Amino acid sequence: MFAARRAVSGAFQTRAFSASARDLSKVTVLGAAGGIGQPLSLLLKLNPRVTDLALYDIRGGPGVAADISHINTKSTVTGYDPTPSGLAAALKGAEIVLIPAGVPRKPGMTRDDLFNTNASIVRDLAKAAAESAPNANILVIANPVNSTVPIVAEIFKAKGVYNPKRLFGVTTLDVVRASRFVSEIKKSDPADENITVVGGHSGVTIVPLFSQSSHPDLVGNAELLKRVQFGGDEVVKAKDGAGSATLSMAMAGARFAESLLKAAQGQKGVTEPTFVDSPLYKDQGVDFFASKVELGPDGAEKILDVGKLDAQEQQLLDACLADLKKNIEKGVTFVAQNP
Ligand code: NAD
Ligand code: LMR
């Protein structure tokens, strides 16, 4: 039974016929009715590069779609119910698939504590994406990102459609936070603070490289380092059981999707930090790593290496790699044991 429900704004038709195929960009959000999913979908509706927005959730997708579809921008918005055909229809033809589906932390939990629940959610959504949108850019937001990204990779490999250039763990929030926290210390405009953050997306795997910023004096600032590595915990604690970062994450996810669309539409020099299948530390058994990545029409065009590190940063990186290796292995093992 085809259970997808549609909520379409008529204005799109004019644009659809006048735009070239290259300019038609369907973006799908899986988990669209959640704390991140709703504001993320809102921001995507405001993005003129998005022409077709598909909102899927196990509950509430059509309601969120109906609401957002009244916003007077040209894109269509379609909500989908949780049936296999609804999920397939949400995914079909997508250029970008964002996955914020999954449970968030409560105080006292680590991101790894979410693994048991979120691993199977991400695995099943990855299977659907591999079948219905094998060429899409897959943007994984669901935690623990260090493990959920390898899970998606293993599923796409098993289905014979893995393209490492099109799989991204969204770590944008780490650089968003780093630039904001630095600007608070330096009394500067965060837009001018370009802080490189490498590694992964949890605790000590988040490695800011202040030596490469315009404030090398911040290397060794333990309080700032803690805020960047454990910024997510600040929000979890403040929300006091009601979840983790949603609004700042929505902004970060929308920024990353916008960068991919810009690059797909021919803009050069678009670079974002992201957790990808990376050659940088494969010799140490670490197959995925977040660093700056230049984006292009085919996804991840060029993976930039971490550059010159301060001795303290090198120590942080060593600790990061040890944890990251275990997190990645956990995701790979999960799929091997629970295909
Ligand atoms: P939430 O509980 O508010 O929303 C999750 C949504 O996912 C819900 O609407 C739920 O119905 C839906 N969902 C659950 N299983 C699904 C499935 N199989 N298919 C489709 N939808 C499904 O949680 P949230 O606050 O939006 O957080 C979502 C995830 O994002 C969490 O795992 C959280 O840890 C993670 N997160 C990641 C980052 C990051 O920087 N990468 C930042 C913040 C949160
Ligand atoms: C974050 O960094 O805010 C997210 O990963 C959510 C969390 O659990 O902290």
TrEMBL record:
Residue sites binding NAD(+) per the record: G31, A32, A33, G34, G35, I36, G37, D57, N118, I141, A142, N143, M249
GO cellular component: mitochondrion
Database matches in InterPro entries: L-lactate/malate_DH, Lactate/malate_DH_C, Lactate/malate_DH_N, Lactate_DH/Glyco_Ohase_4_C, Malate_DH_AS, Malate_DH_type1, NAD(P)-bd_dom_sf
Binding site for substrate: R105, R111, N143, R177
One biological process term in Gene Ontology: tricarboxylic acid cycle
Enzyme Commission number(s): 1.1.1.37
Catalytic reaction equation(s): (S)-malate + NAD(+) = oxaloacetate + NADH + H(+)
Pfam families associated with the record: Ldh_1_C, Ldh_1_N
Active-site residues, Swiss-Prot/TrEMBL: H201
Keywords on record: NAD, Oxidoreductase, Tricarboxylic acid cycle
Domain Lactate/malate dehydrogenase C-terminal per the UniProt entry, residue ranges: 171-334
UniProt superkingdom: Eukaryota
Family: Belongs to the LDH/MDH superfamily. MDH type 1 family.
Name listed for the protein in its UniProt record: Malate dehydrogenase
Source organism of the structure: Venustampulla echinocandica
